[in-house]
Amino acid sequence: MCTRWSDPQWIREELRRKWDSGRILQALLTEDDLFPLRLPLKRPKSNEVNENFAEISHWIKRLRDHSRQGIGFGYELIEREMVHRQSGRNLLPTHAIVPTVQDALRLLKKEREANKFLELAGGMTAHWPALQEWAGRYPHKVLAAGDDWTGILAVMKWFSLNPRCGLYLRQLDIPGIDTKFIERRKGILTELLNIILPERAIDHNVSSFEQQFGLRIKPVQVRMRLLDQAQYIQGLSDLTIPVEQLKDWSPAADRVFITENEINGLCFPDTENSLVIFGLGYGVDILKAIAWLKEKEIYYWGDLDTHGFAILDQVRSFLPQTRSLLMEESILLQHRALWSVEDKPFLGQLTRLSPEEQRLLCSLQNNTWGKGVRLEQERVSFQQVKQCLREKLIPKGSFAQSDFPGCPV
Fold first, then answer.
1. Is the Cβ–Cβ distance between 372 and 341 less than 8 Å?
2. Are 348 and 322 in contact (CB under 8 A)?
3. How far apart are CA 254 and CA 275, in angstroms?
4. Per residue in 320-336, is it b (16+ CB within 10 Å) or e — as a string?
5. More exposed terminus of the chain, fewer Cβ within 10 Å: N or C?
6. DSSP 8-state code for residue 208
7. DSSP annotation string for 327-379
8. Residue ranges in the chain modelled with pLDDT below 50
9. If you average pLDDT over every residue of the chain, what do you get?
10. Nearest CA to 348 among 363, 365, 367?
């Protein structure tokens, strides 16, 4: 049969689209104007009737045989009389009408899923009537959660009785529910809790599930090394401190280096009255909370690539006194043999770079020396690092001449 014309399979495919969009399940819950569903059929044109009369007759018969008239459920046909000078009067189907949602479900063989949806939605709305609109809007999410709903409703009940409890997720005592159950369903729980909880129990200005609903989060840690032996704390120099505690501690050091690479932080030379913070990458934003950094001399040493300058710009957004370290064109060109390729360069504009830094960024973005040129921090000669500190930063006599174990020379 000519595939230009709508057949019973085409009608089922149209219904499938309605199913996939959630409209059919939605019609089970709420008053909806979807049914009776009227589907205009792709049909033969009048000039095709004579030359394709046998094929058209077969097409009409097949539509009728699979209609409500033929099988007792499904679609009904609207037919229009067409008069042709050679073939005479004929009734030609123009529309298929699916009268009810039940007819659609039977045609799609989705009665079982529909009954399951009604069961789940009924259980939800019995506890939380406010969820009926959500269930109607996202019926496939209801079905996808399936047997998890008992646990989901238990978690929701716990949060409603214990708003902004200040506990770790691991500490929640919900019968039959472990931490992983909640962790794996944070997305749907976030949607539902935002509906059922009062506004005072939700913080909309944060992104994490824990912070939004008043749970305690794993402390954000900042790793640093004290570079002046006179400032070690009971012999300790390598410290990892929660940012909430770090912001209340003001170290004696007047100078702070920030570097992304961990090994460079570990190898950073002893330097009088200084410390180094390392390993944060784009996560340097957490340093915003540390007010005492605004009173320090700040140096940022990043990769010599577009993202290195983007992080430098980011640091200057809250520490405007920051100066760059070893991020110069001369350093880049001296290490040509050690260049690598930056796969996804940053191509945006930055507003907090010096003119020299801006020129170098533009050269990197414009592939002046080749596509995606980058010099990673750890590839810079360690002697170059020491020389830079000796010449540009450190008063005479304050730089430790000895190398550290494990550091490249």
1. yes
2. no
3. 8
4. eebebbbbebebbeebe
5. C
6. S
7. -SHHHHHHTGGG-EE-SS---S--SS--HHHHHHHHHHHTTTTSTTEEB-GGG
8. 1, 396-409
9. 90
10. 365
Which pLDDT score, from 0 to 100, does residue 3 have? 62
Q: Is 42 helix (H, G, I), strand (E, B) or coil?
A: coil
Predicted confidence at residue 81, as pLDDT, reads: 83
Residue 394 contacts residue 271 (beta carbons within 8 Å):
yes
Positive/negative CA dihedral, 367, 371, 377, 381 = negative
Which residues of the chain are in CATH 3.40.1360.10 domains? 221-393
Q: Which two tokens stand for residue 50?
A: 């004579």
- Record the tokens describing residue 119, joined without a space: 């069961």
Q: How many CB atoms lie under 10 A from the CB of residue 293?
A: 21
The answer to whether 98 and 75 are in contact (CB under 8 A) is yes
Pairing outcome for strands 88-98 and 76-84: antiparallel
- Identify the pLDDT of residue 231: 96
Cis peptide before 8 (omega within 30 of 0): no
User: Which CATH number is correct for 221-393, 1.10.357.10, 3.40.50.970, 3.40.1360.10, 2.60.120.1690?
Assistant: 3.40.1360.10
Q: Which pLDDT score is estimated for 48?
A: 74
pLDDT in tens, 42-76: 988 877 776 777 888 899 999 999 999 999 999 99
- What are the residues whose beta carbons fall under 8 Å from the beta carbon of 405, sequence distance 6 or more? none
pLDDT at 84: 62
CA distance 111 to 406: 68
Instruction: Give the Cα separation of 326 and 113 in Å (integer).
Output: 63
**E strand segments, 243-319:** 255-259, 274-278, 297-301
Sign of CA dihedral 281, 285, 287, 292: positive
Token pair, residue 75, equals: 């679609």
Which DSSP state fits 304?
B
DSSP letter assigned to residue 189: H
Taking the CA of residue 209 as centre, how many other CA atoms within 13 Å lie in the half-sphere pointing to its CB? 15
Structure tokens that stand for 8 in this block: 């019973």
Residues 238 and 223: their CA atoms lie apart, in Å, by 7
| pTM score, whole prediction | 0.66
Bridge partners (DSSP) of residue 239 are 224
